[in-house]
């Protein structure tokens, strides 16, 4: 039997949920019998330590089309993988050009992880147009396009002038026995001990897209009526601004930003509620992760995956983006009447690792 080999290319594993998703998918594919070469330009990520046997790390100097091309061409000629899968939009042109120059007939696939319209909307006009032009050139030439949610596929299809049927929706691999086991570990945080006030938990990069300022405002409203604390796990450029906001609100004593945590599931399983305040999402990994831990969730009804994950409010309350009052009210209602853990875990099981891996293998022809 011939060896099945997949090449996955990513600029960096440091991008929050995308990095964790790529690692989980690579590990899952390796466990299913596929040899995975993970080509990474920036290997400075704690997620690198989570890769298992069967996943080989191959550094590339850069994902810039001019400077990364020779390395990728040599790699394709030497290894000749059965498929090549990219995970960051701008890498598609690099992968397609490398295939053409190498002479190796390897199918190229791309997974779109973000809501493209919202992502491009935050860029300066010149950069936005350059990015969009590159994608309009590359995406029609790909052998397959994958998106992590239906809204992401619909948005990208409209922007790129492609039929939505060109995209296969494959949800992120999340729920697993490993997640459940890690959720049972001790987080070692005193706020999560028995008998302490309820803890609101948020997990994500400390960047504009997560809209943590609205979450801090909502937490301040909640504290007027009851004791409660807020933990935000993650790192990013807004750390100082968020800490300063908590000081201004007078809530700093009940707000902590512990930074990146290798095992957020231990926190999730002991939090009173997981809150997602995002402006947009590609999918919404943390919602599924918390639900898999049996923890109630509240989320903004933002573009992307949350409404689909929560089935339009069936598995957790959805509120308008940027509305601190509505967010506080939804958390209050959730604390008063949390949904059963069994319901949440059953809903999260739709996004298990084995199912996602099987869908990827089928689409990639592995």
UniProtKB/TrEMBL annotation:
Gene3D superfamilies: Glycogen Phosphorylase B. Residues 16-174 form the Glycosyltransferase subfamily 4-like N-terminal domain. InterPro entries: Glyco_trans_1 (IPR001296), Glyco_trans_4-like_N (IPR028098). One of its GO terms (molecular function) is glycosyltransferase activity. Keywords: Glycosyltransferase, Transferase. Residues 194-347 form the Glycosyl transferase family domain. This is Glycosyltransferase involved in cell wall biosynthesis.
